[in-house]
Structure formats: structure tokens, C-alpha cells
UniProtKB/TrEMBL annotation:
PANTHER family xref list: ABC TRANSPORTER ATP-BINDING PROTEIN (PTHR43820:SF2), HIGH-AFFINITY BRANCHED-CHAIN AMINO ACID TRANSPORT ATP-BINDING PROTEIN LIVF (PTHR43820)
Family statement drawn from the similarity comment of this UniProt entry: Belongs to the ABC transporter superfamily.
GO MF: ATP binding
Protein name as it appears in the record: ABC transporter ATP-binding protein
Highest taxon of source: Bacteria
Annotated Gene3D superfamilies: P-loop containing nucleotide triphosphate hydrolases (3.40.50.300)
InterPro entries: AAA+_ATPase, ABC_transporter-like_ATP-bd, ABC_transporter-like_CS, BCAA_Transport_ATP-bd_LivF, P-loop_NTPase
Pfam families: ABC_tran
Keyword vocabulary terms for this entry: Amino-acid transport, ATP-binding, Cell membrane, Membrane, Nucleotide-binding, Transport
């Protein structure tokens, strides 16, 4: 295992009267794609939101690149080099696709070569360049959201269920884009319910239940162990109802 870029140790998060995260321990190795899996309500999205400072950890430590994120605001955390695409995509609906992309380049003008790489991954970005983002379909909005996250190289990319609600062809595009990101040596933390996508992309995996990480290991190990999948997730990859992405054996 590579040295972790991101580490959570004993993280608890309260939202109002609700105790959502109950001692999360998680490590995200550098240069790998880590899957964060679990049943609905396990705390996966809250974990990402806590890392980004959208919810504040009440107890515990969050380390990133050897420094603590504790007490930092969301904007400061993003400036440390973390890109985050929430489940609701987080695009600016009243702005054009072009304006959304330009705003995502925080450190200066959008690099032309990188933009060409992004539009090869997501051709709809070029197709709808001058169109208000709010007028796009759900799948097209998701492609814009992913493209925005890639507008600049980041130390860590976090995606919350990017395949949710996408047509199969859009899922294939998303998987291809994340594979390309992996080939760049990027570090990715991906929450996903589509287990075929998880199997296709994951290097390491952490499984959550009831606000805690209850399993961590290699994605290939989990994919090969139907009994472990059943125990941790209540189903197994071989019986997953989702269509496998293009190029992935069912």
C-alpha cells in the first residue's frame, strides 16, 4: 500500500441531534482509486462532506498531505488541492458550460491543452459550450460537473455517486474518464453504488456501516469473495443488477 495522502482517525460528526459518523478510520493511498462503499445511510456522503468542512467533525483528526484539515473552512480545504463533486453535482445552473469551466480554474486561465483532454473525455462539454448548464439533461450536467473537477490537476479528487441516474452510455464515458485520471497517477476517493463500476475502477476499498468503516482492503479481494460481499453489502458483485461498463466482463 502506498503512503496515505488522506487519513481520518476516530472522526465523529454530529448533525443537529444526530450522531452520523461514529469513529471513522480511513486511509486513502496516494496514486490509487479508493472506493467507499456501503448500504444507504451508512455515512459515506457525510464522510466526504466532513472532509470538505461542509460538516464539522466533532471529534477526531483529518490529515491531508501531512497537515491537519481540522478547523479549516471549505474554501481553504479546496485550496489545499482537493476537488469535490457532490451527489447534487454542484454546477452553476444560470451560467453557461463555458463559464462553469472557467470558474473551475482557480489558479488562472483554463489551460487549453487540459481543456482539450477534458472535452475528449466528455464531448458534450464542447457540444453545449455556450448553453446554460441548467438546460442540460441530468447526464450532461454530471459530465460538466466531472469536467469542472478536472479543470486543474488536484492532489485529491472526491466524487459522490457520479453514476447515479446516468444512462449506460454515460456510465461508460464516466468510467473511461476516471480510468484516464488514474493513468495520470491521480488520487481518487469515490463513493459509488454501482458495484460493476466499483469493480472496474477500484484499487482499494473501504466499506462503511452505521457510521464506521467496517472493512478495508483490496478491491480485487472483495470482488473475488462473494461471501464477504454478502456479509458487508447484502449482495455480491456477480449478482449486481447494474449493467457492467463497456469492456468489463459481467
Amino acid at each position: 500500500m502506498s503512503a496515505p495522502l488522506l487519513s481520518l482517525s476516530g472522526v465523529h460528526t454530529h448533525i443537529g441531534p444526530y450522531h452520523i459518523l461514529q469513529g471513522v478510520d480511513l486511509q486513502v493511498p496516494r496514486g490509487q482509486l479508493t472506493m467507499l462503499l456501503g448500504r444507504n445511510g451508512a455515512g459515506k456522503s457525510t464522510t466526504l462532506r466532513t472532509i470538505m468542512g461542509l460538516w464539522r467533525a466533532s471529534v477526531g483528526e483529518i490529515g491531508f498531505g501531512g497537515a491537519s484539515l481540522k478547523g479549516l473552512g471549505t474554501a481553504d480545504i479546496a485550496r489545499r488541492g482537493i476537488a469535490y463533486v457532490p451527489e447534487n453535482m454542484g454546477i452553476f445552473s444560470d451560467l453557461t458550460v463555458r463559464e462553469n469551466m472557467l470558474l473551475a480554474a482557480r489558479s488562472g486561465p483554463l489551460d487549453g491543452a487540459r481543456l482539450e483532454w477534458i472535452v475528449k473525455l466528455f464531448p458534450s462539454i464542447r457540444q453545449f459550450w455556450s448553453k446554460p448548464a441548467g438546460k442540460l439533461s441530468g447526464g450532461q450536467k454530471q459530465m460538466v460537473a466531472l469536467g469542472r473537477a478536472l479543470a486543474e490537476p488536484r492532489a485529491l479528487y472526491m466524487f459522490d455517486e457520479p453514476s447515479k441516474g446516468l444512462a449506460p452510455v454515460m456510465v461508460d464515458s464516466m468510467v473511461a474518464a476516471l480510468r484516464a485520471l488514474k493513468e495520470e497517477g491521480a488520487t481518487v476517493l469515490l463513493v459509488e453504488q454501482n458495484l460493476a463500476v466499483a469493480q472496474a475502477l477500484g484499487d482499494s476499498v473501504a466499506v462503511m456501516d452505521a457510521g464506521r468503516v467496517i472493512h478495508h482492503g483490496g478491491m480485487a479481494q472483495l470482488a473475488a469473495d462473494a461471501d464477504l460481499q454478502q456479509r458487508l453489502l447484502g449482495l455480491h458483485l456477480g449478482a449486481a443488477p447494474q449493467r457492467a461498463p463497456a469492456g468489463v466482463a459481467p
